[in-house]
Amino acid sequence: MKKNVSSTTSLHHYDVGNEINGHFYWVGHCSNGIHYSAGQTFNIKQPGRLRAIKLFSEMVTAHTDASITLFEFDERNHVWQKPLLEKHVKVDHSTDGQWLEFNMDGIVLDAHRQYGFKISCNNGGMIAIGEGSWTEKDPYPDGEEWTGSSENASGSFYRNHDLTFLATIEGR
Q1: For residues 46 and 8, what is the distance between their CA atoms, to the nearest angstrom?
Q2: The domain spanning residue 125 has which CATH number?
């Protein structure tokens, strides 16, 4: 598998992200009453339209609604900026070991800007979202993983860890 993906998939499409999968992070409503979320920052080298964000789902505990929110991201100050788009996907046990694909409607992204997304679950249930192997040092150097919870809304960033994700960009 590729580590840091930034390849051309066709004449006008390319992917950025991390395909390495080694561990996972649980997102959703835990039986302890805490709601866990995860996220990832990324940038693109050329302007384009974001067609999809894919996340690897190791397993799902119950039928749930997964939501992903795309943000502008201030990398210098580690601040999530205004939300740009929110999308939902229904998941259940049939999505275990599958890529979850969120159609991002071709929202326009600027080159050399930092973006990020957060994923969470609504209506109960949890998803084990793939993470890059911890033995790999910074598998996606153009971004950082973020984790948060209902008890720690500001969360924490991890420079040397990344979610298993692909963002498909259509060049202009």
Answers
A1: 12
A2: 2.60.120
